[in-house]
Amino acid sequence: MTAVERVRATYAAIEAANRPEIWIFLRPLTDALADATAVDAAVAAGDDLPLAGTTVAVKNNVDVAGLPTTAGCPTYASAPAAADAPVVARLRQAGAVVIGATNLDQFATGLVGTRSPHGAVRDSRRPDRISGGSSSGSAVAVSLRLVDVAIGTDTAGSGRVPAALQGIVGIKPTLGVVPTEGVVPACRSYDCVTVFARDLDTADVVMGVMAGGPGTRPFPPDAPLSAPQTPVVAVPRELPGLSGSWRAAFGEAKDRLVKAGATLREIDLTPFLEAARLLYDGGLVAERHEAVGEFVDAHRAEVDPIVGSIVAAAGSVPATALLRDRVRLRDLTAVALAELGDCDALLVPTTTEHPTIAEVADDPIVVNSRFGTYTNFCNLMDMCAVAVPAGTAGDDQFGVTVVARSGADAVALDVARLLTGSGDTTRAPWPTRAGLSATPLMVVGAHLRGQPLAWQLTDRGARWLGPARTAPLYRFARLDTTPPKPGLMRVGAEDGTSIGGELWLVGTAMLGEFLAALPAPMALGRVTLADGTEVVGFGCALDAWRDGADISQFGDWPSYLRYAEAAPSRA
C-alpha cells in the first residue's frame, strides 16, 4: 500500500472503531494526506525512508507541531506546539505519518488509564476493563490496529503495563538514549520515551529512528550487541501479588524460554521491590511537583483529583527525604545488581492483574500501586526493558517483561525474541542505529559458531549476522597452530576462489580489544565479500600461509574439518 492508501485506511478504521476516548486530538484527514503524498513522492524519487507510510499515534505529553500538548489537562496548554519534539520530527523524517495525539493518565501520573477528563480508555477486548496507563490511548490504538505504532512515555511502567494488558510490544530504552526534549516531564530524572508496536521488529526499527543524536546519553562503547545463544535469565523466587492463574501463566512463559535455549536462575527480588516502593512512598516523588506542581497548585479545580493530590503532596516532601531516598536507591541498586550477578537478563510479570474500570474507581490508589510492583524499579535503577505478550491468564491478556542492565538494550530485545519465537535475530539491533559504533567482522575458522574460539566473540557481546562468502579472490590454508586454524590470503581473481565463513557485528571498542589479544600469525585486514562490500576480516602472516597446507578446494573450514575427521591420515 502507498502512504496515501494507508492513511485513508487508518481514518476509516478509526471511524469504524468508535472509540473516541483514545484520542485527545486527531489531525485533519487533509493534513495527514498531504504528509502521505509527500512520503509517496519521496519514495518514488528513490529516498530511503525506513518508516515510509507508517501511521503513528503520539501520547499527548509529547509535542506534535500544530496540536496543543495538554498532558491530559485541557487548560495546561491551549496553544498548538510550535514544533515537533525531536522524536516526532525523526519519525516524520523517516517517512512516518502522524495521525493524532492520544489520551493518557493526566500528567502521566498513573498506571491505570482512567485518570483523564477525556474519560477512561477502555480495554481493546473487554470494554469494562481498564487499558493500563499512563500511555493508555497509545497502547489501545495499536492493539485495535488503528495505527501501526504509537509513542508513549515511561517513568514507573507506562510503556510496559498497557502493552501487557493490550497484548502488544512495548520497548522502554535505557534512560537518556532517546531525547526527551519536547516531552512534559513527570519525574525528570526517570522519564523516557517509549514505543508500542504489534511486533518486535517494527518496534526495533522505530526505536532506532528515535534514539541518539544531540543531547542524548551515548551508549557505553562496550555495550553488548547481542544476548548469548543460550542466555542465563534470572527469575523471581517469589511472586508477590500474583493470583494462581497469573502465576501459572508466568510459569508457562518460563517453560517456553527454557525450551528456546535459555537457562533460568532464581534470584531474590526483594531489593528490586524495595526500590520500586521508593518512587511514590518516599522522597523521590518530589520530582512530580518539580515537573508540574506550579500549574497544579494554581489550577486544582481543573486537575484530576487523584493526580492533584499526588502532585500537591509531593510539594511538601523535605529535601532531606529526597536526598535520603536517593542514597537508599543507590544502595538498593548495588544489592540488586549483585543479586542479578552474571545473569544476562531478568524476566518478570509485567503487572499483577487486570481489573475493571469500576474496581479501579473503588480503590484507585491501592490498585495503581499494585500495578507498579514489577515495573517501578526499572527506571529508578537505570535498567532497560522489553514488554511482550505471553499468552493468557484465564480471560486476561498476560504479559512479561525482559529487563536488562543499563546499555544492554540489545540483550533485552534478543531475550524477548527468544521467548516469543519471533523477530529477525540476524539484523543489527537498534542501538547500532543510535550511535553505538559497531563493525562487521568476517570470520572463517576457529571463531565460527560452534568452533573452539567463538567464545572470544560472544563474551564481547558480538552479534552473529549469518553466513557469508568472500569474493573469488582468496586462497585458504590450514595453519600449523593449536587449536588448528585456517589462514585466508588474497591472491587475486586469476588464482582465487570464494571462501565461506560468517559475518559478525562487533562493537568497535571491543574490536580493538579483540585485535590486541589476537595471537600470531593471525591478523585482521580488509576482506571483500561476494557482493562486493568490504569488511574487516581474518587473515594471516604471509610466511605462515605459505607454510600451511592449501585447503581452498573445501570452500570453508567446517567442510575441511569433516574431511579431516573422516580421513585423518590425509589431513
From TrEMBL:
Highest taxon, organism lineage: Bacteria
Annotated region (Disordered), positions in chain: 115-136
UniProt xrefs under Pfam families: AH_C, Amidase
Biased composition (Basic and acidic residues): 120-129
GO molecular function terms listed in the Swiss-Prot or TrEMBL record: catalytic activity
Domain Allophanate hydrolase C-terminal: 440-561
Residue stretches making up the Amidase domain: 7-410
Gene3D superfamilies: 1.20.58.1700, Amidase signature (AS) domain (3.90.1300.10), Gamma-glutamyl cyclotransferase-like (3.10.490.10)
NCBIfam families: allophanate_hyd, PRK08186.1
Full protein name: Putative amidase
